[in-house]
Amino acid sequence: MLTHGQPEGHQFEIxxxxxxxxxxxGQSASARELLLRILDRPAQFSRYTxxxxxxxxxxxxFPYATPDNLSLPDLIAYEAHRPLDYxxxxxxxxxxxxxxxxxxxxxxxxxxxxxxxxxxxxVLDALIxxxxxxxxxVVLPTxxxxxxxxxxxxxxxxxxxxxxxxxxxxxxxxxxxxTQERILDLPDLPQLxxxxxxxxxxxxxxxxxxxxxxxxxxxxxxxxxxxxxxxxAGPNIHALASSLPQDFVASFVSTSFATVVSDVxxxxxxxxxxxxxxxxxxxAQLDGPTLIYCQSPARAxxxxxxxxxxxxxxxxxxxxxxxxxxxxxxxxxxxxxxSIPQGIGIHHGKIPRALSQYxxxxxxxxxxxxxxxxxTLIEGVNTSAKNVVVFDHKLxxxxxDFFTFSNIKGxxxxxxxxxxGNVYLFRAPxxxxxxxxxxxxxxxxxxxxxxxxxxxxxxxLLPRSRERIEKYRSQTDVPLEVLKKNxxxxxxxxxxxAKYVRRNLSRLADNLAWSGWPEYEKLQAxxxxxVNFLHPVRGRMHGVSSARQxxxxxxxxxxxxxxVHELILRELANPIETPEPDDAVENVLDFLxxxxxxxxxxxxxALESIVSPILQEGGYEECDYSAYASSAKGYFxxxxxxxxxxxxxxIQLAMKILRGRSYxxxxxxxxxxxxxxxxxxxxxxxxxxxxxxxxxxL
Length: 698
Description:
Layout: H1 11-22, H2 28-39, H3 49-58, H4 72-80, H5 95-105, E1 110-113, H6 120-129, E2 135-139, H7 143-153, E3 161-163, E4 174-178, H8 180-185, E5 194-198, H9 210-224, E6 229-234, E7 239-240, E8 251-254, E9 261-266, H10 275-285, E10 290-293, H11 297-309, H12 320-329, H13 335-339, E11 344-347, H14 353-364, E12 370-373, H15 375-378, E13 387-390, E14 394-395, E15 398-399, H16 402-409, E16 420-425, E17 436-437, H17 440-443, H18 450-453, H19 463-474, H20 480-485, H21 491-503, H22 505-512, H23 520-534, H24 547-560, H25 564-572, H26 581-617, H27 626-633, H28 651-658, H29 668-676, H30 685-696
Helix pairs in contact: 1-2, 1-3, 5-6, 21-23, 21-26, 22-23, 23-24, 24-26, 25-26, 26-27
């Protein structure tokens, strides 16, 4: 009756059933679901508020209970679920949150597998608010999550120094909010009392991105060395692999406790070629904010364009100025600046981070009704979506497994806003089969790459692993400390590179022995070695299909000095490919983020660490690629300017604010301070809104 029918006249019978379910073994989840459905229909149960509050207490759903309606015993239980010294009197834990919080406050390690709506982050916030932990590290899978978490934790900046960048100095009490790469780049860790790894299933290198998984395992090892209490959290995990060592002591809490309900609705299979029409027809009928999952950025564009053509969405004058700004700073024909005013956002890995953050904010505020997204949004960023439409049933060209599907499904509904979310499918969901997570740092199985094994502390190496890496300890081509310093890179490839350079040193030396800023021939020589040994390019990889093309694109990016608009115009002027504006914009953004913004600087510094000693051995000058690598990482902009995008401030706006000022910031904090002290002056309303949000959460 609560799912499909009307409960009028049967309210008491429904509440009686819930009461029975709360006392039956194995039926607590059913009781909670029915209660959440009742909360979604408050007018129809208005006569029974005191009874409902009592049932909410019995079911452990304390956050939804009204304390004024509780009996004294229930009120005592309610108050017992408040976190210690929390800065918001309205916050009360649900039953399982309180258990996890209590264990962590007692310095007990916890590995938590729970639904998306469980409230894993609230537990962390309460631990920090308690003041018990002087230094806390939070490891997150994406920079988008760093910004969301930094903003959420900014209320603690009076008690802690919040650090998101490896160049920022430590304070007396610190909150480190970083990706695994940044944790590894930190010169020194403070004496940690607590660390959390969010989405911990990414430790398993058989899932998702194996290269980043290797680095996450390294980060885990570095954090474990501190002896801090740890909190690993993630969704929908069946179990941990049985290969964990005896000193990896933790409580594994696997729960289905959810604070929202997701109704899965299987739509009729559309005829071949009619999928987009079926999607548009469905979206036209939906009420409330809606996420639409697509398998790729290209597919997201197709879907957004189809929704616009069908007239789905509503014109939002609040977003027109944002669209005009996007058109001026990127390209006026880019689909994003046409879709936004119609209430349709686009969110994927090629969109600049500040624009992605802006769209999530506009979606949560109700200005964007639809957000067409890929897995980048599904993996952790919180929205207020009532509906999720799974348009594509693939990820990376593979069918969605139950784990990924569950994560997508979990994005429907939002605690205190949408008690019941809707998930719409165009094909049957995958068969239920939740994964067992392997931690290769400890399992050290045959599938674990040598690049991770050489990082494992010697006492933790299994005999078979010690035997595997003995060849790296006994060889003399590349010192073991250099192999380890180049995190995530195959040691065998590094050794092959060193042997090649030694054999061909007389021919290569002139193009490798440079410092500062390379001439084009020297840059190309480095790109050849990088692509041939350290990072093979297969097909077209983020706009690059060869070493020559990598060198050319890096050189063009250097010439543009971070001017994205200029790079887009150059891309459009390509006489060979003649891309459409959408392709030109996203090709440029994709290249910048992947190559200069992340991958190339790391590879270039790895190349230096291998080549420089060989040059010195041969009587040549050592090389120093650090200046070029550092500038490339910042898109060849003034130092640290590119990083402000992580704080929700577009690069173009940062440059506008800094115009006429000194760019030479010594530290990230120095630049942030200069931006914070700027005047709004000639900013338009859109820019002013972004700037004020930026300053508010610094």
